[in-house]
């Protein structure tokens, strides 16, 4: 039963998400540019979805777009030296120190086990490599948190499992294997959902 629900949920999200992405593409240019502009060498993007960041990569040897939703991946176009891969971020099918750069955008909210994912990122990222992220996090307001929790099941069903109550400031700060730079960005649209964006990078020791 859970498997069937999950498949339906993934298909719904694969239909809805590219439409939303198109609609807000102008607004997200700054953030997509930030997380990609300093990537280089072998790049891994986790939770790449339908390839929203693809047009922004300029400098790379190999680019891997990884996602665990086959229906969304099918909607991504491919470019030169780019591989599209079905896999989960908490069990990455790569050897230790395979990548110079790792990217995630709006992914941690729907990952089942964030700690496992971070451990995997640490394993496959080279020393002196960089992990660039753009994620959302909850605003600090108990009442909004409780109200959002009432609707979370419905919200998750239509958004590919997105936990809009996730505290990604806490999650990102739990990473101890690199030096962190983190910035906040508020936007009217996400504020309406009791969220704001965080973006930045982790420079691995
Ligand atoms: C909101 S979408 C963001 C897509 C894309 N990064 C973007 O910026 O447009 C979140 C994506 O993360 C993927 N995802 C969630 N959990 C994942 C996991 N454990 N492993 C790989 N991908 C995952 C989802 O399938 C979905 O494509």
SSE inventory with pairings:
Layout (H helix, E strand, L loop, with lengths): L1 H22 L5 H9 L4 E5 L15 E6 L2 H4 L8 E5 L12 E7 L8 H11 E14 L3 H9 L1 H7 L9 H6 L4 E8 L2 H4 L3 E10 L1
Parallel strand pairs: 1-2, 1-4, 2-3, 4-5
Antiparallel strand pairs: 5-7, 6-7
Bound molecules: S-adenosylmethionine.
S-adenosylmethionine (SAM) binds next to helix 1 and strand 2.
Helix vs. strand class: alpha/beta
SSE order, one letter for each helix or strand:
HHEEHEEHEHHHEHE
* CATH structural architecture: 3-Layer(aba) Sandwich
Name the hetero compounds present: S-adenosylmethionine
CATH-defined superfamily: Vaccinia Virus protein VP39
- DSSP, total strands: 7
Q: Helical region count?
A: 8
Measured as a percent range, the helix fraction is 25-40%
Strand order of the largest sheet: 3-2-1-4-5-7-6
Strand content: 25-35%
Number of domains: 1
Poorly predicted regions: none
Radius of gyration: 16 Å
Mean pLDDT: 95
Shape: globular
Could you tell me the CATH topology label. Rossmann fold
The largest sheet, given as strand count, sense and whether it forms a barrel, is: 7 strands, mixed
Q: What is the first-to-last residue Cα distance? A: 44 Å
Query: Briefly, what CATH class?
Result: Alpha Beta
């Amino acid at each position: 039963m859970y498997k069937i629900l999950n498949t339906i949920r993934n298909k719904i999200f694969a239909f809805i998400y590219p439409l939303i992405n198109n609609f807000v593409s102008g607004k997200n240019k700054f953030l997509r540019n930030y997380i990609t502009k300093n990537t280089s060498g072998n790049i891994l993007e986790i939770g790449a979805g339908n390839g929203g960041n693809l047009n922004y990569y300029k400098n790379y040897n190999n680019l891997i777009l990884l996602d665990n939703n086959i229906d969304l991946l099918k909607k991504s176009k491919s470019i030169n030296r780019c591989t599209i891969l079905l896999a989960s971020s908490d069990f990455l099918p790569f050897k230790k120190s395979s990548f110079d750069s790792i990217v995630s955008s709006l992914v941690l909210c729907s990952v089942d086990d964030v700690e496992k994912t971070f451990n995997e990122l640490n394993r496959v990222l080279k020393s002196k490599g960089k992990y660039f992220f753009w994620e959302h996090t909850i605003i600090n307001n108990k009442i909004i948190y409780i109200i959002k929790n009432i609707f979370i099941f419905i919200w998750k069903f239509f958004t590919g499992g997105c936990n809009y109550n996730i505290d990604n400031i806490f999650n990102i700060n739990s990473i101890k294997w690199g030096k962190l730079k983190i910035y906040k960005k508020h936007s009217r649209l996400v504020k309406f959902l009791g969220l704001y964006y965080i973006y930045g990078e982790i420079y691995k020791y």
